[in-house]
Structure formats: C-alpha cells, structure tokens
Amino acid sequence: MTGIRVSDSPQQRLRVGFVLATNFTLSAFSLFVDHLRLAADKDDRSRQIHCSWQILSSAPHPIRSSCGISISRDAPLDDPRTFDYIVVVGGLLQSYEPIDQTTVKWLQRAAAAGVTLIGMCTGTFILCRAGLMDQRPVCVSWYHRQDFVDAFPNHDVVSDQMFLDDGDRITCSGGGAAADVALHVIERNLGRSAGLKASHILLMGRDLTSSAQFRLQPQPPTLDPLIRKADRRVQRAILIMEQNMSCPVPIERIAASLTISSRQLERLFQNALGRKPQDFYRSLRLQYARALLETGQVSVTNVAIEAGFSDCAHFSRHFKLAYGISPRIYHRSAIKNLNAHPAIAASHAGVRIFPEL
Fold this sequence. Notes:
By secondary structure, the chain is of the alpha/beta class. The protein has two domains: 202 residues, Rossmann fold (3-Layer(aba) Sandwich); 136 residues, Arc Repressor Mutant, subunit A (Orthogonal Bundle), CATH 1.10.10.
C-alpha cells in the first residue's frame, strides 16, 4: 500500500493514478509517489488530503518491479476521468507484454477524455505503442535513446533534458527525473510551497525559481566530472554529440540549437575543456569506435560508418593519430584477446558503449 486513504476529500486538488508495467522501475515510482505523499498533508503524516494517488491494474495480482519487489493494486481500471494525471511507469524493455490490451484500451479512453498522461522512464515506449504520442515530441533517457530510435525511427525524440511537457502529455527520462516531474505537477496544482516542502524533506533541495527551469536541465553527462562542472550549454552540446555519433551534427547546428553562435560555443569549450568543440566531437567518436572494435563483433568498415567517418582511410588516419595503432591491428588484437578469454567475450555481447575522456 502507498499510504492512508482519504477518499473523495473536497480539498483534493490533485488526483494521480499509477499504471505500473511488468518489471517497472521501482525508484522512479517511489520518487514520484513520495513527493505526492509529502505534499498531500502537513508535516510527515502522509494523509491524502490535498492530493490522492492510487495504483491501478486490470488484474488483482501484485505487479512485479524490475528489482523483484511487488506492489499490490489499489483499484481496478474504472472511470479514468476520476484522475487529473495518469502516470505510466515503465521498466525493462525486454518484458514481453509490459501492460495488457485491456490497460492499453483504458489509457486510450483516458486520453480521449482529456486526462493528462505521463510516460515515466520506458513508459514513454508504452504510450507510443498505444498510439498516444502521434505527432508529439517525446523525451527519453540517453541510455534508451537508441532503443527508442530503433523502435520508432520516425518519431521526434529529445534526450538532452530531464522531461518534456507537451500539454496533456508529459514524457520523462526516468530515474531521478521522476522527482522533477513530480515537483512540476505539484507546483502546477498545489503551488510552489507544497513542492518545495516535499523536496526539502526528501533532502533533494531545489534552489531554482520554478519547475520550468529544472525541466530544461540537461540529463547528467556520461563523461568525467570535469564536464559536470562545465557550463550548461557545453553539457547540452556534448549530449547532442553523444546522441549523434554515426551522423555527426555540424557545430553550427549544435550552436544554433543552443541559441548561441559557433564562436560562442567554441569559447565555452575552450574555457571548460581547453579544446575546440569539433576536436572534442571527433575524440568522442574515436572513443566510441575503439569501444566497438573491442567487442570483436563489428568490422572495421562498419565501425568507421557507425562512428561517423566518411571512409575507412579517413577513419584509420585519425584513429592511428589518437591511439598510435591502426584500427585493423587493434581489431585483430581484440578478437585474439576475446578468443583467449571466452568469459570476456560473453560480457561484451550486447554491452552498451560509454565514451570516456
């Protein structure tokens, strides 16, 4: 159970229903619901006075999270209009059927009734498969960006901010961003003080003037601590680079997306990292290429393409300058090493590549 029930309170100004996918992410759900809990009552008493929440399911059995902990439902799928928001919490992409067709149809009814739907973590995938995000941009985690592009190649996707508010649809990158969305929703419906109270009690202090600001915060960079201290525009530029390895984005376009000039972006990179953005971008792609070569599963030619180089000769020249060895020799050495250590080879299968400085 998620708290003490106070049904049909005349003071409730925020009603939230949760749909949990099979193997849902427990941390995203708990962060969101704990902010609601603390905003709903005085002190830490957890009564559902100012807002309410329920876990909804088409079946009476508990829903299993990705970490193995199961949560019981509070109510069946009744009239979706009794909620202001319905949060779909996703989880493992490998789950065969994250939600059943009964739940899909219920979400479609909710959308038709004008209820705001929130895709949390891979819950965005669920909303897209249900046809509820057509012609709408979505926000997904940088970690699942390629999975999303593979599943929905023609969909507009962003991975350089924590969440995206598109009116009656909100999509969220997941993880800690669940707290940001919860605060955004609480601030909108209960006021800023209610959101700040929840944040302070959870020791997640926010000193931003409004939820609109932390919505636009970039997702944390996957690189070293130096970048985490860099100007936010440098962080966002790097995220764009990371998400466009095989088809590099011109520096001019990256700068334009940040509403600054190329010269400004170059100065920011020089100040933060001591390098030009184009040089940094190339080093990212070379690190990505090296990691692909180390798997032993991708040919040098395909690695060059995946890393965004126009031809093998161009790729080989830059790779050797960076690492003092040709990519073909590096690739052969990696295959030899993997064959000598089968356990290492198995661990490389399907591994995600994280570039490093």
